[in-house]
Amino acid sequence: MFDIRGYLLHITHYDPVWVAAKKRERPFDLAVGLEVVRALAENGYNMLLIDPKDGVAYRSHPELKRHYTQPMTVLKELACAAREAGLEVAIKLNFAQSSQHQHNHWFSPHHNLFDNDEYFERAFRIIDELVAAAKPERYFHIGMDEDHDRTITQYCAAITRLHAGLKKRKLKTVIWNDSACHWPRALVHAEKSLAAERLTPKDITHIIWDYGIPVDAAAFRRARRRGLAVWGAPGLDVAPIVPVLEKTGCSGIMITRWTPCIRKNRKILLSRVRDAARAFMP
């Protein structure tokens, strides 16, 4: 059984599909989120990874408030319920730079500062608010997938700087790893992840996301040979990735469903929790 059996729950998210619907986005439904927490505990998960972005209000950055933003107490209640259910709590933001994928546009207008001192100072003020509210025990996920706009050097430097700040806060850094992405336009992302495996601190946990069939077992073997802690993130079909993770000694699996946590999607989210667990639980 994997040490980390996690689920990523989105208070909100940013990618081209979600951004196209931002004007119509409905607020995170805490009641549905609490049902997901209960389902996770009942199905053998042990971690809730929460993705708040601009879905909660920040004292330090009131300008990030959107029409779907809710009080920070929503995050507190969700995290508290997870701990009471026996789940470890972790937090995720995304600091990837890409005008195409828009993963850090939740930080708008500050995403345009592009890695200067002010960018990171603001980032850590937000991180500190999230840590104070959710009290993650060990891990903070900084995203970094599909980073189109940084050079390899800039990409590795940004990860290293965020890692240093999280280490001061006694938190371990988690990043997405794009090295299993092989379609032509994704190779720029895969090459950055390969560089990050070599050039960023070795105590960073890499989540290799692989939605393909067959699973790219070589990507997991390589990262493990480099001595990295590796979790796997599968697509809708979870079963193919499980033996690869087991054979390569990966310590975790991270499940998600890229859909808003709202009443309309309640059955989809709960089914995802249960169906995925059947594939990786003994």
How would you sum up this structure in a few lines?
Helices cover 39% and strands 15% of the residues. The protein has 282 residues and is of the alpha/beta class.
Key descriptive features of the protein:
about 280 residues; alpha/beta; 8-stranded parallel barrel; 9 helices; about 15% strand; globular
Walk me through what this model shows.
This protein is of the alpha/beta class and 282 residues long. The protein has nine helices and eight strands. The protein has helices spanning 16-20, 30-42, 72-84, 117-134, 152-168, 187-199, 217-225, 241-247, 266-280, and strands at 4-10, 47-51, 88-92, 139-141, 172-177, 205-210, 229-234, 252-256. Strands 1-2-3-4-5-6-7-8 form an eight-stranded parallel beta barrel, surrounded by eight helices. Helix 3 links the parallel strand 2 (47-51) and strand 3. Helix 2 packs parallel to helix 3 (72-84), helix 2 (30-42) packs parallel to helix 9 and helix 5 packs across helix 6. The longest helix has 18 residues, at 117-134. The mean pLDDT is 98.
